[in-house]
Amino acid sequence: MTDRPSDMKFPATKTGPSIRRPQVSIIGSSEADAAMLKLAEQAGAVVAKLGAALVTGGRDGIMAAASRAAADAGGTVIAVIPGTGMDEANSHSHYVIPTGLGWARNVITAIAGDVIIVIGGAAGTLSEIAYAWMYDRPIIALSESGGWAKRLAGDKVDLRREDRIVDCRTAGELEAALGNLLRTHFKR
Q1: CA 113 to chain centroid
Q2: What is the pLDDT of residue 46?
Q3: Closest residue by Cα to residue 76 from 111, 49, 115, 101
Q4: Cβ distance 94 to 62 under 8 Å?
C-alpha cells in the first residue's frame, strides 16, 4: 500500500537521503480508567497500522496500554523513561531511552513525535502538550478521554500558531486525522 505514511520518504538530510520512518508520541494519564485505556489501545494499534513507530513515556496507564496494542499489532515501541534503569520501562517497549531527567524527560517525549496524540492527561501531560505546541508538532486530542485532551481539543494553546489541536472522538476519526497529518507533514 503506497499511501501509508511509513512508505513516504523524508526530505534529504545534510548528509543525503533519509531512511527515517515516522514517529508518533502518545501522551496521557498514568492513572487511567478503563475507557481511557481502551482508547489508548485503539490509538496504539492505529499508530502501528499506519506504519509509524510509537513513542511514549514508557511507564504505566495510557503509556502501557498504547505500547501493548502497538507491539501486538506489529509496531515498534520506543520508551523515553524518566529514570536511568532500563527495567523501569513497561514490558511492551522494544527500545528504551533512559534519560535520568525525571519530569524534564517530558520535553523529549513531546518532541520525539512527528505528531502527538493526547489521551486524558494531568499536569505532566499538560507540560508535554506545551512543548509539542512550542516546537510546532501537530497535536491530536482524543476528547472523549477527558483530562487535558477534552479541555484543549479544537483549541489553540496560545497565539504562536495558526492551527488548532485536532479533536477526534473515535479511533476511526483518529486514523483518518493521523494519516492525513503524517502525509501532510512528510511532504515538506
Answers
A1: 6
A2: 98
A3: 49
A4: no
- Among 178, 181, 38, 22, residue whose Cα is nearest residue 119: 38
Determine the Cα–Cα distance for residues 26 and 112; give it in Å rounded to an integer: 10
Instruction: Per residue of the chain (188 residues), give pLDDT as tens.
Output: 334 455 555 566 778 777 889 999 999 998 999 999 999 999 999 999 999 999 999 999 999 999 999 999 999 999 999 999 999 999 999 999 999 999 999 999 999 999 999 999 999 999 999 999 999 999 999 999 999 999 999 999 999 999 999 999 999 999 999 999 999 876 43
Contact 103, 78 (CB under 8 A): no
Q: Which three cell numbers stand for residue 152?
A: 484543549
Domains of the chain from N-terminus onward: 20-155+163-185 (3.40.50.450)
Backbone φ, ψ for residue 24 (5° rounding): -125, 125
In this structure, the number of other CB atoms found within 10 A of the CB of residue 76 comes to: 18
Interatomic CA distance for residues 12 and 18, integer angstroms:
5
Write out the DSSP string of 9-69.
Answer: PPPPBTTB------EEEEEE-SS--HHHHHHHHHHHHHHHHTTPEEEE-SSSTHHHHHHHH
